[in-house]
Amino acid sequence: xxxxxxxxxxxxxxxxxxxxxxxxxxxxxxxxxxxxxxxxxxxxxxxxxxxxxxxxxxxxxxxxxxxxxxxxxxxxxxxxxxxxxxxxxxxxxxxxxxxxxxxxxxxxxxxxxxxxxxxxxxxxxxxxxxxxxxxxxxxxxxxxxxxxxxxxxxxxxxxxxxxxxxxxxxxxxxxxxxxxxxxxxxxxxxxxxxxxxxxxxxxxxxxxxxxxxxxxxxxxxxxxxxxxxxxxxxxxxxxxxxxxxxxxxxxxxxxxxxxxxxxxxxxxxxxxxxxxxxxxxxxxxxxxxxxxxxxxxxxxxxxxxxxxxxxxxxxxxxxxxxxxxxxxxxxxxxxxxxxxxxxxxxxxxxxxxxxxxxxxxxxxxxxxxxxxxxxxxxxxxxxxxxxxxxxxxxxxxxxxxxxxxxxxxxxxxxxxxxxxxxxxxxxx
Length: 428
Ligand code: ACO
Prior knowledge:
Helices cover 50% and strands 7% of the residues.
């Protein structure tokens, strides 16, 4: 017998089907609730609501498990290859050799920005936030690549995805160069994805930036660990925008905007600013912990806590180990890493954090690696966005390919005034 949930209210009773995921997790299907009862459900911030079915990313927040298309993220750490993972997320399987070579060739072929887009950078104030530039410029790609405003074939999707993933790093690097008053460095087709990004960021007209294997691996790893995280704030934003059949560029640009917030991707900036403040003596680690616990103080321990993980964020574990490797490979010591470790130790031994199951999240250690690579703090969230793009594209594609998907249109509980009359200006 198929299991059902029974909802009783007043003298009415309705049966609600149970939906089961391939992981055995179950949900009560309330899609007919309004039609059958005249009532909506109330779930602020959607904390209890599965708003789509998805086969891309699996998270077990209690056990600290994260898998892309079934593969545990730990298995991508040995020979990190962001492009391979991007393909896996978007198309469901690891690329075979031919697909891998073809996708890399497409990324190389699309690494330049149209000169009209490049020229726009001159009209943006030099100190503009790079996330604003990234969001605006991703959207503006639609002005140039109009053939991708509608994507209705796998070939079209590969073309649009290659443009977005390839050009995002060029846009990011150009935004940085503009902010520094440095000349733009064009991409070098002989370089791999991450090395090319760093070349555009750090090469000078008279001096080529040379990237080590360790740094390339670290950046690949960082992008991979940010590549998807199922229905988080920015990804659901991409889906909400995409549900209106808005194009992929506009949908991903909206994702960038959502990611910008300090409760989401922007937290990696806050973490390093917090660690720097402690380093400069502005506050002690102990005081930081006290402030985070103080309910009259809006301060939160940045890089700690997660809506889904009630255990260690597996990405934080991998990044913590990667910090040591990267710094060792550069023969460098970063005092901020010591402070981060100290804060972690204090928090993990404090009943406030233990009882609430607050652990370091992906943002806690990512900034240390980015700093070691030489990426300035205001570019951290941009790097997160470059990493997250394949996930947004994969989720947009999954929704687009699903014939049952509808425009997202939540309901509300109205709490405003009852009907009242308009008052003319001279009587107010
Ligand atoms: N510092 C101090 N207290 C915290 C923190 C924190 N970082 N995170 C959560 N809490 C407390 C809350 O105050 C709340 O306490 P209460 O039960 O006494 O009211 C309890 O823990 C539960 O927290 P919620 O706010 O309900 O958790 P929610 O799931 O809504 O928020 C979030 C998750 C936004 C990540 C939150 O933990 C936070 O603000 N963390 C700091 C910012 C951050 O690191 N964001 C990056 C997240 S990862 C990412 O987006 C890529």
